[in-house]
Amino acid sequence: MLGVSGTSAPYIYICTRMRVRKTTLLPREEYMRMLNMSLPEIIRIIGETDYKQEIDELGTMFKGIDLIEVALSWNLAKEYQKILEITPGTLKQFTQAYLRRWDIQNVLTLLRGKMQGEKTGKIKEVLIPAGSLDRAILDRLLAEDSTDKIVESLKAYRMYPQVFAREYPLAKESGSFSKLENALYKQFYAEIIEEAESGIKGGNLFLEFIRLEIDIKNIKTLFRLYANAVKEDAQEMFISGGVLTSSDFASLNTIRDRNEFIDLLKTKIRHKALLTLLEELRNEKTMHDVETRLTRVQLELMERMSKRHPISIHPILVYLEKKKYEVFNLRALARGKESKLPPEKIAGYLVM
Asked: 335: which residues sit within 8 A by CB, 6+ positions away?
């Protein structure tokens, strides 16, 4: 089934390119091998992969974990920008919309870093200029000497009037950006759902992908709330647009029995793989393992969508996500080695 108009060569080309690119991502066996290596050995291996150019360019300025952090960030941003350059038509519009999530992550990283007194260089290492806020804009924001000035500089940004103007003063007063973060992601998903539902060709398939992502986010939030027995302000954390309604979310958050919680959640879910996982999560103790396993199922379901709709936005979004998690995994490996964690502990953080 086609998710875009016709079978034009540019659409077939980009979707084929994404499938080919996906085959170049590191396989599970490579991660397992790196688990038993030292940090210098891991850097050497990464320098022999698609990250070679960044490792070579940055090797004179950074060493060890800093080199890994910056090289991974640069490579991910560069790869995303390359994909945007070669993506045609409506697929480009969907891809740009999807990548705006990085604006949220980058701005929150800047605000938290400034508030905590982090060095400018350390903050810059983990910024990913892949959204509408490019490297030049992020550098200007990074040069500001306070969170107030960063937010002031964002007045032209699309989310300023809807979110920052309202939420930033409250965040500053409380000393926490968690409510601001929730509001930003709610606004982000509301905007891209509106875009997908605007009648644009292929919008229904884009919407399918986004709704699954929202469902997984809400389920992760429910598990965190359950684990922490948190009831206050729970509704602020709910994102609309998925299969769970606001009342479903509220009802699930009142349940304190694990089996009852899982049973009710299963009545709301449609995906078989997710239902199977929820059954397995009855006895899962750590929140980290719950989130990692939910992420793995999400990627598996997204992969299935991509195979059902090979000429659509799905192959592009699947590659974007898998590339993101490759960077996530390499960063977790490097940080784990730097912290001298045992291999089995590090392996628990990898999304493979």
From this structure: 65
